[in-house]
């Protein structure tokens, strides 16, 4: 896949690494252990990880209403018709609005979600405000297609240099969590010294509950790429969590535009980034899809890599 006229490519702080262009099919490119694509999908989320042996995991599956970017179409354009895991953080529309397009275009082997929120619970949670098309399609898929419980972490399936695990709060009325945001499935994806966290729309109360889990705390301490919770809104920022991530390279906001004053949190996150990346002569600690659009990280197993911004997704 070549670069577009507007695509920007920058070297990160690690090393000078030539820009690899990967073919659309499974690859074994020397030197790159994992690709991370973060797509520009309005006020939503969608990211794709490709391992060294070509296995693919997608986290959330939003779409872009203005450009009509849909995840299934985008994968097909890359001649990808097979997705090993789809991880859905939670059942809000902006995180699953492209599910219908994805399922009609791509074979998804397994769908991973917070198992304490099966379809009947989601219907109860969404009863008051109603379910929009994406959420309804996702719930039907759980009822009709993805009916077998799946592992919430890497299993015997071969993901090459990539491994992953998840943590969750449980749906526990009347005194526990009953809101979609704090039931977000938190996903960690690891590749060599790199570790990415996808927290969905987790809010402070949900973070603090997970911090009671020692295994979760241990995972945080190795995070290098942090996807800001709730698109960077203040209620998703937890200082205690950020203080447990001393090796941060960058924080990423996935939001097309600042819709809420509480999203003006870049300075809060920036103070926690110990290293940052160098891009176009600038030292960047925070990236956003609203200014940097879709982005790609090429990560090496021994450390280092490269980032490209404003790419054709």
Question: How is the secondary structure organized here?
Answer:
Blueprint: E1 8-11, E2 34-38, E3 46-51, E4 56-61, H1 71-77, E5 82-87, H2 99-105, E6 107-112, H3 119-125, H4 133-144, E7 162-167, E8 186-191, E9 194-198, H5 204-210, H6 214-220, E10 225-227, H7 239-243, E11 250-253, H8 266-270, E12 277-279, E13 282-284, E14 286-288, H9 289-292, E15 295-299, E16 305-309
Parallel strand pairs: 4-5, 5-6, 9-10, 10-11, 11-14
Antiparallel strand pairs: 1-16, 2-3, 2-15, 3-4, 7-8, 8-9, 12-13, 15-16
Helix pairs in contact: 1-2
Domain Metallo-beta-lactamase: 43-112
Protein name: MBL fold metallo-hydrolase
InterPro entries: Competence_DNA_uptake, Metallo-B-lactamas, RibonucZ/Hydroxyglut_hydro
Please tell me about this protein's structure.
- With 313 residues, this protein is α/β, with parallel strands linked by helices.
- It has a single domain, classed as 4-Layer Sandwich (Metallo-beta-lactamase, Chain A), CATH 3.60.15.10.
- It is built from 9 helices and 16 strands.
- The protein has helices at 71-77, 99-105, 119-125, 133-144, 204-210, 214-220, 239-243, 266-270, 289-292; strands spanning 8-11, 34-38, 46-51, 56-61, 82-87, 107-112, 162-167, 186-191, 194-198, 225-227, 250-253, 277-279, 282-284, 286-288, 295-299, 305-309.
- It is globular and about 50 Å long.
- The termini are close together.
- 50% of the residues are buried.
